[in-house]
Amino acid sequence: MFILNPQSGTPIYRQLMEQVRRLVASGQLAPGTALPSVRELAMEHAVNPMTISKAYNLLEIEGVLLRNRGKPMTVAARPRAQAPRAKRLRQLDEEVKQLVLAAKQLELGKKDVVELIDEKWEDEDGGRNRQRTRA
Amino acid sequence: MFILNPQSGTPIYRQLMEQVRRLVASGQLAPGTALPSVRELAMEHAVNPMTISKAYNLLEIEGVLLRNRGKPMTVAARPRAQAPRAKRLRQLDEEVKQLVLAAKQLELGKKDVVELIDEKWEDEDGGRNRQRTRA
Amino acid sequence: MFILNPQSGTPIYRQLMEQVRRLVASGQLAPGTALPSVRELAMEHAVNPMTISKAYNLLEIEGVLLRNRGKPMTVAARPRAQAPRAKRLRQLDEEVKQLVLAAKQLELGKKDVVELIDEKWEDEDGGRNRQRTRA
Amino acid sequence: MFILNPQSGTPIYRQLMEQVRRLVASGQLAPGTALPSVRELAMEHAVNPMTISKAYNLLEIEGVLLRNRGKPMTVAARPRAQAPRAKRLRQLDEEVKQLVLAAKQLELGKKDVVELIDEKWEDEDGGRNRQRTRA
DNA sequence: GTGGTCTAGACCACA
DNA sequence: GTGGTCTAGACCACA
Fold it and tell me: CA end-to-end span of chain A, whole Å?
């Protein structure tokens, strides 16, 4: 469900927060949905429970998640079905900017980038198993 | 020449290293080229000289830069004109994977992403001034 | 465990690196052994933590030490029990060369040098408390 | 006449100062003897003249050398024929201490060290051309 | 002018 | 508790 990369420069708890926010914004995590427990996630990703816990805590403070004593945390009700498209697009801005900068510095063309995206897009999990469907 | 973002999760010195590597890989920084001095870069980006110095240092250990006592550091000779396209493409992999993951989690389409790229691509400096030329 | 001399021309972080390398080469620091924490060493030698940190960092890049998030750094597994005698001898080469040069320039004899070594050898800690046992 | 190693941690000007002091202490550089010119030394060792100049200057301040307008610097008169043996021995102390520490950390024996010294001692220039005379 | 080393001290990520 | 990053600023070696 989540992809956490401890090697990446970005702190693990931030990676998790960002991904939860996105799944909530898109409605894939609907209000009321229970999240995996801290322990479960920690085990699955071989990460310290406190790291997961920190992400959940901050998301609760943000109002994205709700804490339910003795039960799993759930997605808060606030968000309507889905954040407006414009808002979700804005959440991609930073990522796109970085990618474009990287491509230009590598003297690669827009076409190269689009092809790469095309390629990754087909991957089951967002890019770990390469199983291209079409060129 | 470089774009450093202190807000980003990625440490500044790593951002700089990555960008130098890319410019060297693409041949935009040719072997023998002198890099901006530590102080110069530090001033320009309102960053501590030691932060720049750390990046340069690590790049020297990596063999990307050469130290010249009392004179500016230069790009090492090793790399031929330009790294092969395949290798440069691979350097974009991680960025693309992240972007695709983000888009999917936001339930945005490939088309949305490509449009955003299109948009950022036109920006003068890799993404700071928005001056769209065409849709 | 380590002897750091801030007066010496050699940067402190390099002195530390050299000593760690030697203890690892000799097997006195076995693979898996935890090193003293950055803060501990810094306190003990009245040195800035960043100085110690820099040495540890570079040793990690060299592959001598391993970083364990949130836990002390450890000696990497790579080296077998002990580096071969020949290799360890080669690590003394530079030191010996310098000493011989110094002795010759002072017009002292090989015998003088050997006596001095004999003398320092008996010292508990490698040369700080003079407690000669025999001539 | 001098051996300067830019790689060594020790600053070049200090290496030079130390060697001049030793040759003077031993009487190999007698009072009145002219030293090589700054330029000459700089050329020979591929080093910036200012570096040599700095060493000479500091040695003049120390009273070891004399400046002679328009003519080469010379060894000052102060020192008698040769510094007393005890004093010269003390000048080796630091070097010996370092060597003994290194040997112990490498788990090498006093005998190993003495053999190495024996070996280097035969070398013409203090250790660059290996021309052993005897084991 | 160049880069290198070090300090004192703040704050962060992770266990 | 562990190490990592960064700052502001001093001083050094070398060109």
Answer: 27
E15 closest protein residue (CA to C1'):
C70
Instruction: List residues of chain C with CB under 8 Å from any CB of chain B.
Output: 58, 61
Instruction: Give the distance, in angstroms, between residue B59 CA and nucleotide F15 C1'.
Output: 22
Q: Which residues touch strand F (CB under 7 A)?
A: B 6, 11-14, 46-51, 54, 69-71; C 9, 35, 37-40, 49-50, 53, 56-57, 60, 67, 69-73; D 6, 11-14, 47-48, 50-51, 54
Contact criterion met (CB < 8 Å) for D100 and C113: no
What six digits make up the tokens of C101? 């040069």
Q: In this predicted model, what pLDDT tens digit does every residue of B48-92 receive, in sequence order?
A: 999 999 999 999 988 899 988 888 999 998 766 677 888 899 989
Q: What is the DSSP letter of B77?
A: S
The SS3 call for residue A71 is strand
Q: Please tell me the distance from the alpha carbon of residue C5 to that of residue D9, in angstroms, as a whole number.
A: 13
Backbone angles phi, psi at C67, to 5 degrees: -90, 135
* Element spanning B60, H or E: helix B49-62
pLDDT, tens digit, 9 for 90 and up, residues C85-130: 898 999 899 889 989 999 998 999 999 999 999 999 988 554 433 3
| Structural tokens at position A66 | 């709700």
Stated pTM of the model: 0.79
Q: Which residue is associated with the tokens 């992999």?
A: B93
C82 in helix, strand or coil? coil
Please report the DSSP string for C38-81 in residue order.
Answer: HHHHHHHTT--HHHHHHHHHHHHHHTSEEEETTEEEEE-S-S-S
